[in-house]
Amino acid sequence: MEQRVAFVTGASRGIGRAIAMRLARDGRHVVLVSRSEGPLGDVRSAIVEAGGSASVKAVDVGDGAALARVIDETASELGRVDILVNNAGITRDGLVLRMSDEQWDEVIRVNLTSAFVAIRAAARHMMRGKFGRIVNISSTSGVVGNAGQANYAAAKSGLIGLTKSIARELGSKGITANVIAPGFVETDMTDKLPEAARQAFLDSLPVKRGGKPEDIAAAVAYVTADDAGYLTGQTICVDGGMTMC
Ligand code: NAP
Q1: Each residue of 149-192: pLDDT tens digit?
Q2: Alpha-carbon distance 132 to 71, whole Å?
């Protein structure tokens, strides 16, 4: 069988980087996507040094036309797109009474609309290969809500409805779609939390520690495996037991 191609957004750092490294270790060719060419190049070098293969596509996922173009380009260069991981995400937190239209729109565009656009573009190529694995990286905020994150929680919750719908639409074509919802993972996104609040929160978790990007990558590897074809439409909370969703 030819090498499977995995398109991973937000691969320049944090969770996306760990997903890319893991999928490459599992033998996939990984297309690394974010806005920053330099950091993506560093991830590619790390993958190649470890014996894997990867390529770089710098694009703003908030620009739907550019994102769809890059997916089509990948399919024509590599002949296939088998796995899509919609991981790129941002927060623009604020209480709802003070949240601006811009804060709302930007978070919905980057976290949710980009996933819809990428799925629409990638599914055409997956259908041709009669195989596909789509993973949307949501958040426990999208499952249980979070004060100060109405925009982010709406986007992440939207990913769950989007995933269930496409799982129903595309299941007969050999394409699965699942959500991974991380809890608290130690990355740039979460490093602003004051130490005392952070520790108190971690102590409240059954596993008594923060998540590592590799914890999320392991779940992505599981749902994108060739033999995971009977698992679809699911939301898996990888959160140290925080929600038990
Ligand atoms: P991070 O360290 O801030 O990394 C975010 C990634 O998204 C970067 O690679 C960034 O790349 C990319 N990105 C952001 N805006 C983009 C855009 N407009 N176009 C293309 N790429 C863009 O975040 P993280 O913690 O790894 O989070 C990854 C995902 O997990 C996100 O969807 C996040 O919501 C979700 N999540 C994280 C946690 C957590 O505790 N960390 C919890 C739940 C869910 P560039 O800046 O290079 O473009």
Answers
A1: 999 999 999 999 999 999 999 999 999 999 999 999 999 999 88
A2: 14
- In a domain, residue 139? The reply is yes
DSSP 4: P
DSSP 230: T
* Pocket flag, ligand 1, residue 90 (CB < 6 Å): yes
Distance 92 CA to ligand 1 centre (A): 12
Q: Is residue 47 part of a domain?
A: yes
CATH number of the domain that 82 lies in? 3.40.50.720
Q: Write down the catalytic residue from 7, 104, 152, 184.
A: 152
> Which residue segment(s) compose the domain that 25 sits in?
5-238
What span, in angstroms and rounded, lies between the C-alpha atoms of 25 and 14? 17
- Residue 172 in any domain: the answer is yes
Cα(186) to centroid(ligand 1), Å: 12
201, pLDDT greater than 80: yes
**Closest Cα to atom 8, ligand 1: which residue?**
10
Structurally, how many domains does the chain consist of?
1
Strands of 5-9's sheet, edge to edge?
53-58, 29-34, 5-9, 83-86, 132-137, 175-182, 235-238
Closest atom of ligand 1 to CA, residue 140: 43
C-alpha closest to that of 82 among 222, 231, 226, 216: 226
